[in-house]
Amino acid sequence: MVILDGVTYRVRVRMPTLTRSFRIEEGERSGVVKSGDYFRDITGTYYDYAMEVEPDPAHPAEYDAFYEAISAPTESHTITVPYGQGAMTYEAMVSSGADNQRDKVGGVTRWTGLSVTFKARKPQRRPT
Fold this sequence. Notes:
By secondary structure, this protein is mainly β. The protein has a single domain (2-120), classed as Elongation Factor Tu (Ef-tu), domain 3, CATH 2.40.30. The protein is built from one helix and eleven strands. The strands form two sheets. Strands 1, 2, 3, 4, 7, 8, 9, 10 and 11 form a nine-stranded antiparallel beta sheet that branches. A two-stranded antiparallel ribbon has the order 5-6. Strand 10 (97-105) and strand 11 (108-120) form a beta hairpin. The mean pLDDT is 94.
């Protein structure tokens, strides 16, 4: 299942396609100082996720609903993802996604491999 904007969609995340990455962003003041050292004006750590989503064969309409939600022209979405031994909910931007039509069985179009990348909108961790 995937939780997006507070709605639980009965879709499947293909294993092992769920990946997380982090990026430590720096502000404008970062750079080499007179001593030759590099000064880091760290904004914070951002966690980004990527995944491939498949329909649950028992709930094909939920995949369609998820596709409509994820492709909506909005600034960001609230996504809940696994993090460590628990979960993290945060605001993430989605710029693009892609899937493939697999086949059509019994009047139901089946889709496969919706790849989506969630890019954190703000840092989840800030310097202490």
